[in-house]
Write a structure and sequence with these properties.
single chain; alpha+beta
Length: about 90
């Protein structure tokens, strides 16, 4: 499902214009991105959490040059679904 599909589905179910729904979804995503960039997690009860995970420093190999490189500690965005969400998917997806 794409963003356009989501906009169409919400518009159909609520009767709100597609343009308004699209602006709302864009604002929602921008708010979440902005919060994660600031290092703040976003919790949506019954859906899940958008969190910032810390990746530790590690040693890796560049196979083509046969050298060792150090990848520094860094942070990545992640999504952790709620237990009820996970249960619903487990029980309904075949």
């Amino acid at each position: 499902m794409t963003k356009a599909d989501i906009v169409n589905e919400i518009s159909k179910n609520t009767g709100i214009e597609k343009v308004t729904v699209q602006k709302t979804i864009e604002a929602f995503m921008d708010t979440i991105k902005g919060s994660l960039v600031k290092g703040k997690n976003v919790y949506l009860r019954g859906f899940g959490s958008f969190i910032v995970k810390e990746r530790a420093e590690k040693t890796a190999r560049n196979i083509s040059k046969n050298t060792t490189i150090i990848i520094p500690k860094h942070f990545i965005p992640a999504f952790k679904p709620s237990k009820s969400f996970v249960t619903k998917v487990k029980n309904n997806v075949k």
